Description:
Layout: H1 11-36, H2 39-42, H3 53-72, H4 83-87, H5 100-109, H6 112-130, H7 144-153, H8 164-168, H9 173-198
Helix pairs in contact: 1-6, 1-9, 3-6, 3-9
Amino acid sequence: MRQSNRYEGVAMELSKLFLQRHDVLHSFWLDEFERCVAAELRRVRPHPRVNSIAWSLWHIARVEDVSVNRFVADQPQILDLPWRQRLRVDLRHHGAGMTFAEVDDLSQQIDLAALHAYRHAVALRTREVVATIDQIDLNATLGPEPLRAILEDEGVAHPAAAGLFENYLGWTKGRSLMALGLTHGFEHVGEIGVIASLLGVELD
């Protein structure tokens, strides 16, 4: 019996919807935070229990880079180009599990201009992948061995984030694309808005 494909016949509509929301995420919300919040303030954690805006922008880009390129398209990450040197952040994980001390270190050392460029390079690659969405089996799941290789051998999981394997196991490519390549970024938009407010910044 032929297995049902929940995405069959709707790939182009899904692509159009994804790209519309993805453009809003990057070109409106995230670019707007960079425009409205001064560079040095983006490095600040204004409360002991919150992250910095710089860390949040890096984390959003890293999760999108990993999820779209490794989980969905099975191709190298943008980070595998010489981005770690440009960013001045020699990390391959995507930030989950970091301590606030580690967040402080990253926030102070990261090159903010390079971060902007990296985030937009990731976004461009995502749009290229989504443009060929009809060639991707969005129902396919990432098996335990490939997933473990990405998280552990490729260094995507922070040493304190061992639970990522159990969390991601069984996810389909479609879920990875929508949840990690899009929804995750919008979840952090609210967080960044709170951080900006704590910094005393009024957003337009």
